[in-house]
Design brief:
about 20% helix; single chain; 2 helices
Length: about 160
């Protein structure tokens, strides 16, 4: 009987240790700071740069700032000035999962400063991606109907600081 209890305890302890190791292996260490594209990746001619910046909080589990700059094109919506740049910022923190993924999709309100006009505009914005190891630290996509159709929607971000 004692041998059975001992064997059962050892099996349970080994299983628990394996589960803890598996969870630790799935956790990605994300450095706090700024993530941004290389300039050469966002300066293609005739394209809105669609440059995305992310700021990760200390601890690496939340994005405190996420934003994009894009051009409105020659026929913008919502009374925006033509061929001008707007800035879209996510209105709240975005959680980063243990495996390094994140996403936001919803309405955003742009201030007159962000629209570079005298009006406030509400639009939608979608951003999703994942952190990874290596030189390219974040890959993903983003979009908003307020940006011209040529806007780059794929992002490849590097750790900047």
């Amino acid at each position: 009987m004692r041998a059975w209890v001992l064997v059962s305890t050892l099996i349970l302890a080994t299983s628990c240790a394996g589960a803890v190791q598996a969870m630790a292996a799935g956790t990605l260490h994300i450095r706090p700071g700024l993530y941004a594209p290389n300039a050469s990746e966002t300066t293609r001619e005739d394209y809105s740069n669609g440059g995305v910046n992310l700021v990760v909080a200390k601890g690496g589990r939340k994005i405190t700032e996420a934003g994009i700059s894009c051009y409105t094109g020659s026929a913008p919506t919502d009374g925006l000035p033509a061929n001008d740049e707007v800035t879209i910022r996510v209105p709240h923190l975005i959680a980063i999962t243990a495996t390094g993924t994140f996403s936001f999709s919803g309405p955003v309100t742009l201030t007159p400063e962000e629209t570079q006009s005298e009006i406030t505009v509400t639009t939608t914005f979608t951003i999703k991606g994942r952190f990874q190891k290596g030189k390219i630290a974040v890959v993903g996509s983003d979009s908003s109907p307020i940006c011209q159709s040529q806007t780059l929607t794929r992002m490849r971000l590097h750790y900047a600081r």
